[in-house]
Amino acid sequence: MIGFIRGILAEKGAGYILIDVNGIGYEVNVPANAKAYLASEGSEITVYTSMIVRDDDVSLYGFSRKGELDAFKKLITVNGVGAKAGLAILSAFTLEELEQAIIFEDSKTLTRANGIGKKTAERIVLDLKDKFRDNAGNQANIEPEITGGTPVTTGGRSEAIEALMALGYSRGEATSALAAVRDDNLTSEEYIKKALKNLF
Questions:
Q1: 155 closest CA partner among 182, 110, 191
Q2: What does the pLDDT profile of the chain (200 residues) look like in tens digits?
Q3: FRET pair for 137, CA 20 to 30 Å: which of 19, 40, 150, 198?
């Protein structure tokens, strides 16, 4: 297993990069918004990798952050989401945007990723929302926003975040505390009370 690769960005192609490590070129599939993909050729880069082995192919998938690699591994556990679909999702969203969409059950937003339909997006939310919520305490900058396409009432959560920040908590602390609240369709006051219990 190759955990990460550090080397010189030798070449960029459609959805992949070549990393020169002491004269050996590693072809790594990366998201379109990856820092490694956006870097200049000749610069030193590091990517955290996952190796996918099939009967007729061995491929490396690389990410600039360990959190992105972890999200990719979670995504490909969902039925119907392969490595290419997982890469497409992480190309369409930042890690924070992906976490936000899944935690707050915004499946419509996920359909913006290339090749992700409504049913697949709903399956991703159903299968992964608890896993992402459980990990939310170690994450920051997950902020709910009203998209208009989600059946979940996120307005109460948004107002609760602003209220908690007014009380002196950071945005990361507030959003993490709210992510741990499993109830939906609560008023902002109810969200605040439950979130405060998670902050003490």
A1: 191
A2: 789 999 999 999 988 999 999 999 999 999 988 888 888 999 999 999 999 998 888 999 999 999 999 999 999 999 999 999 999 999 998 888 898 889 888 899 899 999 999 999 999 999 999 888 876 655 444 444 433 333 333 457 777 877 887 888 876 677 767 777 767 677 888 888 888 887 76
A3: 150
Instruction: Give the C-alpha separation, 36 to 94, whole Å.
Output: 14
Matching residue, tokens 């992949």: 16
**Does pTM surpass 0.70?**
no
- Which residue, among 154, 149, 200, has the nearest Cα to 173 in the 3D structure? 200
Q: Are 8 and 20 in contact (CB under 8 A)?
A: yes
Measuring CA to CA, how many Å separate 33 from each of 20, 82, 87, 106, 109? 20, 19, 10, 21, 17
Q: Are 191 and 181 in contact (CB under 8 A)?
A: yes
* β-pair partners for 16: 13, 29
